[in-house]
Amino acid sequence: MKNSLTKKKIILIIGGGIAAYKSLDLIRLLKKQECEVKVVLTESGKKFVTPLSISSLSQNKVFHDIFDSEKEAEMDHISLSRWCDLILYAPITANSIAKLAYGRADDLASALILASNKKIILVPAMNVRMWLHKSTQNNINKLLDFGYLSIGPSSGEMACGEYGEGKMSSPEEINEFLKNYFFERNIVKNKNLKALVTAGPTKEYIDPVRFITNNSSGKQGYEIAKALAKYGVKTTLISGPSKLKKPENVKIVKVESADQMYKETKKNLPVDIAVCTAAVTDFKPEKYEKIKIKKNNININFKRNIDILEFLSKNNSQRPRLVIGFAAETNDIIKFAKEKRNKKYCDWIIANDISNPEIGFNSEFNAVSIIDNNKIEKIEKNLKSYIANKIAKKIINNFTQ
């Protein structure tokens, strides 16, 4: 099998900390696999490794000054980010994590990342208490929300003599992570996978001024569409009414009613993956009144809307290879989710508790349980973007194993 790292162009940013010496071994490993490596050395990184040792190993100039008078016209923070396939920050300290989380760009490393249009992978290394501090955890989660990836840290004895989580991952572990990263993307690209995601609420109008709906923001579905697109999956998002921004590299179709969402779903088949996160209104009025109904004359009969998840799961001619439904429940979450999966014939059902305002509709956070053949994988409370990345990763693994 061809090495997935061959001819890949990698920017390695070396931050401060005693773990910086590991970056030299990492450069050796990457060069052995015919990677082209360019290194940005931070001011604090210079305290632990020298530009001469780095340039000898990488066989490239070492970059460190955002104001390089000799190359001012080339704007290194732009040209480097466009040149590479990936940016790896190893090691990255608590201070640099905080800087990136707040969008600062006061040196070449941070300006490069802020200007980048490539995947950013962070390799944290610090004292266990610094890593576990709430501010560091908030900052790293913020960066994961931006779509950055993180390798480690691992647990073990540290240079300071303490033991715990905070050790920089080994060069071999980082190398393996990068190989898997490119391998998965090559498979996704070669398979030309297509996905359809439904998101948000639907509106069912009673008359020109009244409608029934629910409080879904659509955020979880938007984040899943975004995460799949980042893996290289050709993704269509069919969205009910939502104020959310269109995700990058995602085709979006806006609808209002359940009927419109159903028709657009049919129109966009076939796909390999269908993820039904939309909170589709279960009922609609039997008759739409063209003029406003007077309040003393309201008598409304309802009928069921078509079930889009069930339609996709039972669609023998154009059934997606993987159909995933969501079960938004207020009680007996797992029980009702399992029942829904069996009834709808979908492959996976993802259950979440909408009775909890901290993880329900319109929250930035979620906590879910993925049910697959009665196997349950729980993802604890986290940002919806984090949840989406975990779900997308599981989906990609399903097609690459």
Quick recap of the structure?
With 401 residues, the chain is α/β, with parallel strands linked by helices. It has helices spanning 22-32, 51-58, 76-83, 94-101, 108-114, 128-132, 134-146, 171-191, 219-230, 258-267, 308-313, 333-344, 384-400; strands at residues 9-14, 36-41, 62-63, 86-92, 119-124, 149-150, 154-157, 163-167, 194-199, 204-205, 211-212, 234-239, 250-254, 273-276, 283-285, 302-304, 322-329, 348-353, 365-372, 375-383.
Which helices and strands appear, and what pairs or packs with what?
Elements: E1 9-14, H1 22-32, E2 36-41, H2 51-58, E3 62-63, H3 76-83, E4 86-92, H4 94-101, H5 108-114, E5 119-124, H6 128-132, H7 134-146, E6 149-150, E7 154-157, E8 163-167, H8 171-191, E9 194-199, E10 204-205, E11 211-212, H9 219-230, E12 234-239, E13 250-254, H10 258-267, E14 273-276, E15 283-285, E16 302-304, H11 308-313, E17 322-329, H12 333-344, E18 348-353, E19 365-372, E20 375-383, H13 384-400
Parallel strand pairs: 1-2, 1-4, 2-3, 4-5, 5-6, 9-12, 9-14, 12-13, 14-17, 17-18
Antiparallel strand pairs: 7-8, 10-11, 15-16, 18-19, 19-20
Describe this structure in words.
This protein has 401 residues and is an alpha/beta fold. The protein has helices at residues 22-32, 51-58, 76-83, 94-101, 108-114, 128-132, 134-146, 171-191, 219-230, 258-267, 308-313, 333-344, 384-400, and strands spanning 9-14, 36-41, 62-63, 86-92, 119-124, 149-150, 154-157, 163-167, 194-199, 204-205, 211-212, 234-239, 250-254, 273-276, 283-285, 302-304, 322-329, 348-353, 365-372, 375-383. It folds into two domains: 9-188, 3-Layer(aba) Sandwich (Rossmann fold), CATH 3.40.50.1950; 192-400, CoaB-like (Rossmann fold, 3-Layer(aba) Sandwich). The chain has an eight-stranded mixed sheet, sandwiched between helices. Helix 3 (76-83) crosses helix 5 (108-114) and helix 4 packs across helix 7 (134-146). The longest helix has 21 residues, at 171-191. The two termini are 15 Å apart.
